[in-house]
Write a structure and sequence with these properties.
disordered C terminus, 15 helices, mainly alpha
C-alpha cells in the first residue's frame, strides 16, 4: 500500500471508529433527557442537561492536559482507552443510579478531551495542505453518519409510544453500548506513519506518534506539549477562531440535546412526539453527512477557499432559528414530563420541525469541516495543542449552554446563538483572509486548501 493510500485508509478507519462510538453517544445524548424524565418518578433523580453540562465542563478543563496525555501514551492508545469510557457512560443507562450517572459524566469529560485531541493529531498527521480539506470532509461525513443510524432505530422502536418503559430503555442502551465498543476496537486498525524527517528535524505531530523513545523523552514531550498549548492560546489566529469555535459549542448543545427535547415535549404532535425525536436526529445526520461529503469532494475545486462555506453555514442556521422560533412553543426546552400544550406563532408543524433538524445539521457541518481544515492547515506541526484549544473553547461553551438550557426559554437560547454566530463568522473570515495571503506569498495555489 502506497503512503498516500495508507493515509487515506487511516482517515477512513478513524471516521468509521468515530461513527460507531458516536452512533451510541449522540443517540444517547439525543434521548437522555426524555428517558430521564420518565425515570424521575423512581429513585433516580438525575438531569440530562446537568450531566451534559458536567461532561463539557470537565471536557474543557481536561483539554489543558490532553496534549500531554497524547504525547505520553500515543494517539492510538489514547483513543482506545477513551472509547472504553464512552461505552461505560452509555452502559450506566441500562440500570441507572444517580451517583453512577454523574460519576460517569466526569470520566467521559476527561476521555472526550483526550479522544478529540488524538483525533486532531491523527487527522493532521495523515494529511497535507493539499488533502486536509478532503480528509476533513471525509472524516466529518463518516462521523456524522452516527446521527442517522442510531436515531433511525429510535424512530421505529418508539413510534406511537408516549412513555418509555424499562424494557425499552434497557434494549436501546445495551445495543448502544455494544456499538460503542465496536468503534473502540476499530482504532486498533489505524496504521502508524513512518517518520520521514531528517534526524535533526523536529515535528511535534510525528513526535507524538512515535513510540520508540524512552519514558523520559516522552515525559519531556508531554511537558512541551502543555507549554505549546498555553503559548498557542494567546496567538491572534487562535483568539479569533475561538469566537467561531464558541458558536459551534452553543449550537452543538442545541441540536444534539435541546432541540430533540423540545420536539418530544410538544403535545400537539400527538402520539408521534417521542418517535419524532429519532426522526429529528436522522435528518440532522442527513444534513451533516451531505455537508461533510460535498465539502470534502469539492475541496480541491473550491477556488474561493473556506469563507463561502462558512457563510452558507450561518445563513442556513439563521433560517433554521427563525423557523424554530415560529414553530416551537417557548417553554418547550423546560417543559415538565407532561409536555406543553402551548403554541408559538403558528400551529406546531412536524414537517417544519424536521426540516429545521436538517438545516441544523447542514449548517453545523459547514462550520466544523472548515474549522478542522483551517486548524490542520495553520498548525500542521502543532496539531495536538491546536485541536486541544479548539475543543477546550467548544466544550466550555457547550457546558455553559447545557447549564442555561435548564432555565432559559427557547427565544433567549436562539438569540444567544444568533449573536455569537454572527461575530464568529466575521472572525473566521479574518483568519481565512490571512491564511490565503500567507499561502499566496509562498507561491501556492489558494484553491488547494
Amino acid at each position: 500500500m502506497s503512503p498516500a493510500s495508507k493515509k487515506l485508509f487511516n482517515i477512513i478507519i478513524l471516521g468509521l471508529s468515530f461513527m460507531f462510538i458516536f452512533t451510541a453517544f449522540q443517540t444517547c445524548g439525543n434521548i437522555a433527557q426524555t428517558v430521564i424524565t420518565n425515570l424521575n418518578s423512581t429513585d433516580f433523580h438525575g438531569s440530562g442537561y446537568t450531566s451534559m453540562s458536567i461532561i463539557y465542563g470537565v471536557f474543557s478543563a481536561s483539554n489543558l492536559i490532553s496534549p500531554s496525555v497524547v504525547a505520553l501514551v500515543g494517539p492510538q492508545l489514547s483513543m482506545v482507552v477513551s472509547g472504553v469510557f464512552y461505552s461505560l457512560y452509555i452502559a450506566v443507562f441500562i440500570q441507572p443510579a444517580t451517583w453512577a450517572f454523574y460519576t460517569a459524566s466526569v470520566f467521559i469529560g476527561i476521555a472526550a478531551a483526550v479522544l478529540w485531541t488524538a483525533q486532531g493529531n491523527c487527522l493532521t498527521v495523515n494529511s497535507d495542505e493539499n488533502t486536509i480539506g478532503r480528509n476533513s470532509g471525509v472524516f466529518w461525513a463518516l462521523l456524522q453518519s452516527s446521527l442517522f443510524f442510531g436515531n433511525l432505530y429510535i424512530y421505529f422502536a418508539w413510534q406511537g409510544k408516549t412513555h418509555i418503559s424499562e424494557s425499552d430503555r434497557r434494549t436501546v442502551f445495551i445495543a448502544l453500548t455494544v456499538i460503542s465498543l465496536v468503534g473502540t476496537v476499530l482504532f486498533f486498525l489505524i496504521r502508524k506513519q513512518e517518520d520521514t524527517k531528517a534526524p535533526g528535524e523536529e515535528d511535534s505531530a510525528n513526535e507524538i506518534l512515535g513510540d520508540s523513545s524512552s519514558a523520559q523523552n516522552r515525559l519531556t514531550r508531554a511537558v512541551a506539549a502543555f507549554k505549546k498549548s498555553i503559548k498557542l492560546s494567546f496567538t491572534k489566529e487562535i483568539l479569533l477562531l475561538s469566537v467561531t469555535t464558541a458558536y459551534t459549542g452553543l449550537e452543538l448543545t442545541f441540536f444534539s440535546g435541546v432541540y430533540g427535547t423540545c420536539i418530544g415535549a410538544v403535545n400537539r404532535f400527538g402520539s408521534e412526539e417521542k418517535s419524532l425525536i429519532g426522526l429529528s436526529g436522522i435528518f440532522t445526520g442527513v444534513g451533516e453527512i451531505l455537508g461533510g461529503g460535498i465539502f470534502g469532494l469539492l475541496s480541491k475545486s473550491n477556488r474561493f477557499g473556506r469563507n463561502p462555506i462558512v457563510m452558507l453555514g450561518i445563513l442556513v442556521h439563521f433560517i433554521a432559528f427563525y423557523l424554530i422560533f415560529f414553530n416551537m412553543p417557548n417553554d418547550a426546552p423546560i417543559a415538565p414530563m407532561e409536555g406543553t400544550d402551548d403554541v408559538a406563532y403558528m400551529i406546531p408543524s412536524k414537517e417544519v420541525a424536521i426540516f429545521c433538524s436538517f438545516l441544523l445539521g447542514l449548517g453545523d457541518s459547514c462550520f466544523n469541516t472548515q474549522l478542522l481544515s483551517i486548524l490542520g492547515f495553520l498548525y500542521s506541526e502543532d496539531s495536538a495543542p491546536a485541536f486541544a484549544i479548539f475543543k477546550f473553547v467548544q466544550s466550555i461553551c457547550a457546558a455553559v449552554a447545557y447549564f442555561y438550557s435548564n432555565y432559559f426559554l427557547l427565544q433567549w437560547q436562539l438569540l444567544i446563538m444568533v449573536v455569537v454566530g454572527f461575530f464568529g463568522t466575521i472572525t473566521f473570515f479574518l483568519v481565512e483572509w490571512e491564511a490565503a495571503a500567507a499561502l499566496t506569498a509562498r507561491g501556492s495555489d489558494y484553491s488547494s486548501i
